[in-house]
Design a protein that fits this description.
Blueprint: E1 5-7, H1 12-22, E2 29-31, H2 48-63, E3 67-76, H3 97-107, E4 117-127, E5 133-144, E6 160-162, E7 167-168, H4 174-180, H5 182-198
Parallel strand pairs: 1-2, 1-3
Antiparallel strand pairs: 3-4, 4-5, 5-6, 6-7
Helix pairs in contact: 1-5, 4-5
């Protein structure tokens, strides 16, 4: 069987980013759905790394193939790091992000710019059939904007302001986002670890 990477997500936006960044590994990258893995994986870890490992282990165990997973979220300093590892589940898993974003802007209503610091965090885990486990982490620093802006990103991108770009992370190109993003940084770091593992 040809070697491939199974990425533990069903999110198409995320799969596009992952495929772009991992393209130079010259391996097919498939989603868990494309690999035939169905059913929910209970993420009950207390850190981004633990949750990523739980997902990668589950997919590797069900397929016997190399699995990668990420766990990412938004940490807002003014809200003591919330929503953090609960970013996807904040206000309920099925709540649209327009509502989640509006609720966060509401919580930060009247909060001055210097206290609106936040970061996106991404942990990537890789679990190999031989039991090897690798993890990497990336962050993207910014601030919570005052309004929802931009159409390019997904999730919390429209309220995440990047001072160095002068716009939200939903207003930059996919290429620029992969360069700057927490997921881009974590994936590039994982790519180096994979190359070292394969050597």
């Amino acid at each position: 069987m040809e070697k491939r990477i199974i990425f533990a997500t069903g999110n198409e936006g995320k799969m596009r980013e992952v495929r772009m960044i991992l393209a130079d590994l010259k391996l097919p990258v498939v989603s868990m759905k494309e690999a035939g893995v169905t059913g929910d994986i209970i993420e009950n870890g207390t850190t981004f790394e633990e949750n990523a490992l739980i997902k990668a282990r589950a997919v590797m165990e069900r397929t016997g193939e190399m699995a990668l997973a990420d766990d990412s979220g938004l940490e807002i300093d003014y809200l003591d790091g919330a929503p953090g590892i609960y970013s996807a589940r904040f206000m309920g898993e099925d709540t649209p992000y327009e509502k989640k974003n509006a609720a966060i802007l509401e919580k930060l209503s009247g909060v001055p710019e210097q206290e609106r610091t936040a970061r996106f965090v991404c942990a990537i885990a890789c679990v190999m059939p031989d039991g090897t486990e690798l993890t990497s982490r990336g962050t993207m620093e910014g601030r919570i904007a005052y309004e929802i802006r931009g159409e390019n990103g997904f999730g919390y991108d429209p309220i995440f302001y990047l001072p160095e770009c002068g716009c939200s992370s939903a207003q930059i190109s996919p290429e620029q986002k992969n360069e700057l993003s927490h997921r881009g940084k974590a994936l590039r770091s994982m790519k180096e670890k994979l190359r070292a593992y394969w050597e």
